[in-house]
Structure formats: structure tokens, C-alpha cells
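Run log, item B.
One chain of 80 residues. Sequence copied directly from the ordering sheet:
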Amino acid sequence: MKVITAPNEIVTDLPTIFLAGGITDCDPWQTVVIEGFRYGNDAVLLNPRRKTFSIYDPEESRKQIEWEFNALTNCDIFAM
């Protein structure tokens, strides 16, 4: 299973699954979902949770919002 994490460019011919849900002040639930898909190879998980992110940086916030909008607009499935 391939995982594309924000803010990396989303380029794939495979179906995509956007991991929608809490990021700020939430447990890292995305890791649990990614681990559950580890044996699959026929889809790409789009993970908006970055390892490091400053919510106080307006430029990084803008990039994050644009990445998530692009991912949601173009994904085949979103999971919450």
C-alpha cells in the first residue's frame, strides 16, 4: 500500500482513499488505518497528517488546506 502524506504531490493511476478526520489535538488514528491496509497494493492512501506542522504559520496552513482540498476533490473514496 502506498501512502502519500501532505504536502507531497499526488500522482498515481491507482484508486485513492483520503483519510478524512481530526488531526489537531487527536490521537494519530491515521497510523492505525494505514497499518490495517499494509498488505494491499491496489490503492493509495492520502494522509493529511504531517509529522511536523505549525498551525501558526499562515503559509503552511494555506498549503495544507490546498492539499486537503485537492485530495478530497480528486480522491475515489474518503474514509472518516
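Observations after the first pass:
- The mean pLDDT is 89.
- The beta strands are 2-5, 16-19, 44-47, 77-79.
Flagged for discussion on Thursday.
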